[in-house]
Amino acid sequence: MAHAATVGELATSLVRSLTGITRDDSIFGGLKDRTIKGLRDGGHGRVNPFEIKDRCAGLVEKFGVLNRDDLAEALQSRLDSLPETRWIPDVLSLLLQLSNRPLENASLSDLDGLTAVFSPPPELTWEDIVADGPLTDDDAWGEVERGYHSSGDDEVFDGSDSEPTTSTQATSFAEDDIAALARLHIVKPDAILLGDVRTARETLSRPRDSSDVNAVSELILIRETISMLRGLPTDLFSVGSGAVVSISSNLCIATASKPMLYHLLSNFAEIGSQLVFLRHWTQQKRSEAYVQSIQAAVQSTTGTIDLNIGRLEQRFIEPPDSCVVSLIDVRIEVEEFTRAAIHLSSIIAANDRASNGDKSSSFALLDALYEEACVADMAGDKQLFNAIARALLAGIRTYLRPVLLWVSSGDLPKQGADTFFVRPGVEDCPLSEIWHKRFALRLQTGGRACAPEVMQPFIEQLYAAGKEKAFLKLNGHEADESVVDAVSLTARLSMATVTERLTPNSLMSFDELLHELLQDCFAGTRSPDTTTLRTVMLEHVDLLRHTRALNDVFLGHDGMSLQAFTGSLFGLLQRGSSNWHDKFFLTRLVQSTLGAAPIVHGHCITVSVLTDDNHPARGPISRQLARIKLAYAVPCPVQNVTRSADLPTYSAAFSLLLQIEYAAYVLSSQTFDLRKLGFGWRSAGPALQETLSLRERLIWFIGILRSHYGTVITTHADGLRRGLEAANGIDSMAEIWATHDKHLRLCLLLAPNVAPLIDAVKHILRLSESLEDAWPSLLDQSTSLPAVTRMAAEFDKILAFVAAGLRSVSRAGGVPALEALAERLQWNAG
Amino acid sequence: MPAADDSKRKAARETIVGLTEANSQNNPANLLQQDILHEISTLLNTNLDRQSLSYCVSLIENGVNPEALATVIKELRVQNTRYEAERGAAATEQ
Fold first, then answer.
1. Is residue A441 part of a domain?
2. Model confidence at A99, in pLDDT bands (50, 70, 90)?
3. Do B59 and B70 have their domain in common?
């Protein structure tokens, strides 16, 4: 019907156009009917396009033959310019049939007269403008602001309903008529196409609790799902609090049941929730640098997911010949490439819930990623392992930068110092305590260092390495100044390296590989030219020399210098000089005698004399000698090993040594020269004989003591030297020194648990002084035999006590030196 | 399949739109075609003005046989000539 109406209309127009007869004429109707009838005549054959083409070519040739080349060229050019449409042969057939002796009647000048049927729009007049809107506003006739006037400031003119102002038949346009040129290329959007989208949106916008159940196509659901997975707002899904995606529309599709559909959409909603959480988490502001690195790594993972979603979407935008639109297929594909990201999301969400701002779990995220990466590696899940390991390694690389700064320079980081595994100790501690007090390990609850789990095996090593650098720097022994390139060192901790190492070696675990890589990274902080602490201590500070000097100064290693000192000192004491305790005099004396040894720095020796309740100013000389306190100023680095500037063991040993030497001095003096007596030994009385016997035994006792001390000192000195030479750090040196000091104290009977023994020994030594004091009275027979006998019995008793005590101590502590001393004492005593 | 139906509907819509645009008087391609056809018509001395030619083209595009159309046009011209002659004679008698 529409076609017939169209043909009828056209026929009416054709009649009017050809004849000029209007509808008002009486014959118009008949003409029109006959025209329509004639047009419907089906007795004519179809037009043969090839025949028409041949006829046109023949006509052109005829024009040429008949000397009408102008017509021939004009016709040929027009025929060549005609577009090849379906109806052109028919139109040409019509023209050929209607042609009327063109050879005689046609002329090229006729073409010049052809003009386009153009009806320009009526000119705009002031009456039209005023009729449209009277210009009564005050602003209408105001001054126009001079200056740049952009056509873009004007109101947008919708020219869709107006005729173009320039001829569309023109073969060329004015250069400034850009608007017309642009209008030719404008393609109007098809409102019909957008209608489907608008309808779908209205359907999806209806709330889920609405009673209307609307059917939508699977393609629409896929489009909404893809948009939701991208994180874009959609009508089908809504994002609630806590980044939870839910389905917000009540709908169905023709190809699945409603429960099935909602189950599918719920799966997508779960995936979308995880992705939304991940995207929100990567946007959070975090203060920890390593967390920021993990955020960047996770963001690259979500970027990869976006690329995959884009590829999925492209398949529906430009579908291939056989494209299946299936929500289930989309779900399978989405689950595949989001699996790793969903697992990451669950790890991060669990960590956030567990930590909840608790500082003790500063590295909980790193630990969780480390554990999951190891599990994924063991399970052989390459996709999951790659995603988790990438985030883990990014965090470790950033975490290691301040660690490497600490290891290479001994400087604590300024940022993130609260969670660094080293914390500052005593800020203003003296140089002699730098190693032990300047820094300390930061511990978490449970006693573990504040560091990720993967770093725990290296904490002690890193702590000592950084302390070493700081120690050298603070003591003026500048370490190697080359700056460690933390970026290049940590660049080895990358997925490329991990993949390269793990792929050919399937038996190697990720945990083992990571430890190797970290070990290599830390080893890279040391160059062959790096000055080590051990080298500085042994060569620059000359630790061994100072320890040998202590033996010379405190333990009488050089007997001649000791004898020179004690001879001068004891002579003063014997003469009763009142200035013997002058510390300056004593210092000068010590420096000139004990300090004269080549390995001793004499100027480092000082002497002080104690005066307190435990050290009275008057009394036996042996007690006075205990007031003398010797000090040797070892360098501060050495003090970090000895842990003490006073060296109490050595001071106590020196004090005891003085008493032993004094006892030997008084027993061997001229006092006991029998040649002065004027009578022989056999003529001496029993008291005198007993005295001389006691003297011999005291001399024997002192000799054994001296021998024991000499052996102990020599043995321990050798052991100390070997231990210090083999030590690789101050911690081991300090430990060796502490062991040496403890053993020396025990062997020299200076330990608190053997105080009764040393008191007994000192009592025996005081017997020597008592014997010397009693000698003059023995000579004039004023001292009786029982007194001497009493002294001898006291000596025997104390000796037995000392021997038994030594034996028990040696058995309890396993000290061979004390056992040997006890045996020697018992041999001669027995 | 939903995707094929959508594409078919889209293709059909495009075809209709294309035809509509092609039939549109304002379609530049169509106008150019009409120009050329009018010039060919002039060269062949068909005595068809532009308007009539456009009607003929539209009729042919609506499936009218060109030979039938040519016959109708010739007949209309004859009828017109006769009508003109009768009107002229009637005007003279008055």
1. yes
2. very high
3. no
Q: Kindly tell me the number of DSSP H helices and DSSP E strands found in chain B.
A: 4, 0
Residues of A in contact with B65 (CB under 8 A): 39, 41-42, 44, 46-47, 90
CB contact under 8 A, A14 and B52: yes
The ipTM value here is 0.78
Mean predicted confidence (pLDDT) in B22-40: 72
| Domain assignment present for A324 | yes
- For the segment A690-742, what is each residue's pLDDT rounded down to a tens digit? 888 888 899 999 999 999 998 998 888 889 999 999 988 888 899 999 999 99
Burial class (CB in 10 A: 0-12, 13-18, 19+), A257: exposed
Chain B residue with CA closest to A319: the answer is: B3
* Whether B71 and B59 share a structural domain: no
Question: B94 CA to chain A: closest CA distance, Å?
Answer: 19
Comparing A761 with B84, the larger pLDDT belongs to: A761
Residues A503 and A482 in one domain: yes
User: Hey, are the CB atoms on A111 and B42 less than 8 Å from each other?
Assistant: yes
- Do residues A660 and A746 both lie within one domain? yes
User: Are A654 and A779 within one domain?
Assistant: yes
| Predicted local confidence at residue B17, as pLDDT | 47
Q: Which residues of A touch B20 (CB under 8 A)?
A: none
Predicted structure pTM score: 0.62
Q: Which amino acid is at A798?
A: I
Same domain, A606 and A718: yes
Classify each residue of A376-413 as buried b or exposed e, where b means 16 or more C-beta atoms within 10 Å of its C-beta. bbeeebeebbbbbbbbbbbbbbbbbbbbbbbbbbbebe
CB A391 within 8 A of CB A299: no
CB A183 within 8 A of CB A161: no
Domain range holding B94?
65-94
Instruction: Name the domain count of chain B.
Output: 2
CA distance B93 to chain A (A): 20
A102 domain-assigned: no
CB contacts, 8 Å: B49 with chain A: 17
Is residue B56 located within the same domain as residue B72? Answer: no
A311 and A388 belong to one structural domain: no
Contacts of B68 in chain A (CB under 8 A): 38-41, 43-44
Q: What are phi and psi of A169, to 5 degrees?
A: -90, -10
Q: Would you call A218 an interface residue with chain B, using a CB distance cutoff of 8 Å?
A: yes
Which domain does A24 fall in, by range? 2-39
Residues A439 and A501 in one domain: yes
Strand partners, A605: A632
Whether A142 is covered by a domain: the verdict is no
Q: How far is A203 from chain B (nearest CA, A)?
A: 18
Q: How many domains does chain A fold into? A: 5
Per the CB < 8 Å rule, is A99 touching B46? yes
Mean pLDDT of A795-804: 91
Portion 388-407 of A in contact with B at CB < 8 A: none
- Asked if B59 and B69 sit in the same domain, the reply is no
A544, HSE (Cβ side, Cα atoms, 13 Å):
16
B18 neighbourhood in chain A, CB within 8 Å: none
